[in-house]
């Protein structure tokens, strides 16, 4: 234990024990911090509304900025949506794992409360084996960057802990995250061909090689 009451584990030397402690924390409705292919993320069980509320509170972030969902494998997207347009399927087949987030209609039967999403869910498969190992154990996680709202995203576990403290139960230290451009966000809830909402690591020309009809402002 550290002085905040949260726990920090090394993914390099304590991987299996660390992932198991993090898994139990998620099952108990707590928040965990872990490295991704961009920055450190803070996650909570995607199907646990109270846990997601704790995540938003830890970041001092409102429901008007809902958390996206990270999954371990592309096949798991079918657990979150009944509607996967052909263009979306082509993109995820090409760019997952990777820096692509797709917004899709959420399954109505799901107990999914990520904030004010208006019935949608933003989904990504991170290109980071440690993150995906965790996701394989926990199932889908609501995840946001590990920082206080308005502050720079943490690229180390220590920086995340300095900001989030004991609002997070478990910190998984995987060394310095690479940072870099955020994921490209493509919305498929209005147009089946997709519209780029946020340019990011994957450029529009790369997207159009796979989905020629995709729209961008």
UniProtKB/TrEMBL annotation:
GO terms for molecular function: ATP binding; double-stranded RNA binding; L-threonylcarbamoyladenylate synthase; tRNA binding. It is an enzyme of class 2 (transferase). Its EC number is 2.7.7.87. It catalyses: L-threonine + hydrogencarbonate + ATP = L-threonylcarbamoyladenylate + diphosphate + H2O. Belongs to the SUA5 family. It comes from the Bacteria. Residues 16-202 form the YrdC-like domain. One of its GO terms (cellular component) is cytoplasm. This is L-threonylcarbamoyladenylate synthase. PANTHER family: SUA5, THREONYLCARBAMOYL-AMP SYNTHASE. Its main location: cytoplasm. It comes from Arachnia propionica. It is found in: Cytoplasm. GO terms for biological process: regulation of translational fidelity; tRNA processing. Keywords: ATP-binding, Cytoplasm, Nucleotide-binding, Nucleotidyltransferase, Transferase, tRNA processing. Pfam families: Sua5_yciO_yrdC.
């Amino acid at each position: 234990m550290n002085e905040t009451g949260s726990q920090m584990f090394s993914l390099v030397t304590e991987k299996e024990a660390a992932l198991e402690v993090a898994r139990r924390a998620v099952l108990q409705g707590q928040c965990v911090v872990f490295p991704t292919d961009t920055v450190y993320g803070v996650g909570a069980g995607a199907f646990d509304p109270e846990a997601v509320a704790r995540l938003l509170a830890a970041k001092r972030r409102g429901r008007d900025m809902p958390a996206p969902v990270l999954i371990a494998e592309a096949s798991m997207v079918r657990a979150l949506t009944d509607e996967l347009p052909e263009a979306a399927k082509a993109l995820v087949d090409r760019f997952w794992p990777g820096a692509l987030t797709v917004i899709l209609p959420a399954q109505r039967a799901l107990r999914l409360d990520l904030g004010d999403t208006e019935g949608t869910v933003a989904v990504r498969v991170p290109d980071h084996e440690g993150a995906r190992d965790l996701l394989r154990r926990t199932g889908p996680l609501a995840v946001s960057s590990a920082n206080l709202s308005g502050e720079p995203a943490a690229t180390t576990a220590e920086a995340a802990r300095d900001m989030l403290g004991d609002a997070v139960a478990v910190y998984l230290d995987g060394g310095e995250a690479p940072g870099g451009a955020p994921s490209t966000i493509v919305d498929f809830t209005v147009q089946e061909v997709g519209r780029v909402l946020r340019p990011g690591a994957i450029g529009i020309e790369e997207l159009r090689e796979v989905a020629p009809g995709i729209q961008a402002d």
